[in-house]
Amino acid sequence: MPAMNLYTTDPLFAWNRLDDSPDLRCIETFFRLLPDARLLDALQHNRGKGRNEYPVRVLWYCAVLQPLLRHTTMEQTLAELRRNADLRRLGGMEHAEAVPRSWNMSRFLTALGQTPFDSLLRDVFNRMVQRLGGAVSTLGQETAGDATHLSARRARGKINAQGIQPDGGRKEYTGEDGKVERVLEWFGYKLHLLCDTRHEVVLSYTVTPASRTDNEALPEVVRIAKANLPNPRIDTLAYDKACDDEAIHRLLAQEGIRPLIQTRTMWKEEPERPLEKAGIGNVVYDEAGTIYCYDMVSDPPVRHRMAYIGHEPARRTLKYRCPAEHESWRCACSARCNAGKRYGMTVRVKQELDLRRFPPIPRATKLFERRYKGRSACERVNARLKLYWGADDGNLAGGYNFMARIGLVLVVHIGLASVLAKTQRRDPGKLGLTRLSPIARALATG
Q: At 132, is the pLDDT very low, low, confident or very high (cuts 50, 70, 90)?
């Protein structure tokens, strides 16, 4: 029997089909897919010739098993291993006495969060993303970024011996009028993610203290994601107004990624500005970069939103046309603006004028609105990481132990994504299994 009942009508990554508690076949498949040889070799080499009462592979198995089984504490995982012989033997433990103690696991996690093992743990995640990216041609085309809060306690002992330390974070939620409606304060960290919006798969991540801003962490997350995916793969990146600054837009332009970033409200005095050398002096733009033209004949002048024609990458310009000519309606100012032009007044806006205001996909377009809605995928991913796999239980102290736990949760996420993509599907209404899809075959032979 297969590990999960998946059907041909289910999406490739059918997250809603995951069992609350995976069975032995699913667990076995999961561990077989993990590229953990480098990490385990490094941990074994670091152990040297000391005691080997609990082998490194056994400790690793127990550490990954906690988020995989959705246990809130390590003691719950160890207790289940002692009473479940089949689960225990899957990890190489013949007898209950071979199951490690909680303090053994605590020391192992502390070591796992230190250099160079933290980098090797991240490498396990990155290599699985690279494997999925090679098999799934659409993975990473439309992406979204987000940062979520993680609660933690301050570690005891020397601060410089415990890795990245938690601190206080604050986030304000404002309404459409710019007023603060809600304030979130916490002590801990920030988890910065870049996700695929179609498949809800994490492509890269980093953990920072809570006081670190989103726009400071985004360049690193983008760099890791580009290294994990075939180039060029990332087409768009959606983010909220926290990353609306000139440096981020310049970075994404250099990387060939089209930004979908909401603009921050900063213009206090003037709602719009004139676009120089455009039209007959009647073309303006607002803070979001929307282009308007004024009917200069009517009294008072009437403002119309110009028709967006498209992005011209070679010229690095955005092309707009007279809305009356494009939409076939009469405008009193048409004779002055269009002056006998076949397609009416045409305006080309140079993006270099303001990269924040004039991205390749203007904000006042249906394409921007449709793709920006993909950011909700990040929220669903965060919910799974924090609520489903327990990345934010608040019980861990900051430092090495915390970093190891977050890395393990992300490994479980990407590992189960591989299991879902690899699982053979059933045809609804039929008893037999269908043939493996090309993606499943690629993952099976990769």
A: very high
Q: What's the pLDDT tens digit per position in 163-215?
A: 678 888 888 777 766 677 888 888 889 999 999 999 999 999 999 999 999 99
Same domain, 286 and 348: yes
pLDDT category at 71 given cuts 50, 70, 90 is very high
- Do the domain assignments include residue 362? no
Q: What are the tens digits of pLDDT across the range 209-245?
A: 999 999 999 999 999 999 999 989 999 999 999 999 9
The answer on pLDDT for 159 being more than 60 is no
Q: Tell whether 146 is covered by a domain.
A: yes
In a shared domain, residues 229 and 287? no
Cα angle 100, 113, 387 (rounded to 5 degrees) comes to 80
pLDDT in tens, 278-324: 888 899 999 999 999 999 888 888 999 999 999 999 999 999 999 99
Domain extent for 277: 272-354
Q: How confident is the model at residue 398 (pLDDT cuts 50, 70, 90)?
A: low
CA atoms within 13 A on the CB side of 235: 12
- Nearest Cα neighbor of 378 from 214, 187, 192 is 192
> How many domains is the chain partitioned into structurally?
3
How many helices (H) and strands (E) the chain has is answered by 15, 13
Residue 9, in any domain of the structure? no
Decide if 251 is inside a domain: yes
